[in-house]
Amino acid sequence: MSDTHVAGVVGSLRSRSHTRTAVRAALEGAEAAGASTQLVDIRAYDLPPLNPDVDDQGDGADFRSTIRTADAIVLGTPVYHGSCSGVLKNALDHCGFEEFEGVTVGLLAVAGGSFPITALEHLRSVCRALNAWVLPYQAAIPRADAAIENGQFTDVDLRDRVETLGDRVVAYRSIEPEPSTFESGQNKGA
Question: What is the set of domains in the chain, with CATH numbers?
Answer without folding.
Answer: 5-176 (3.40.50.360)
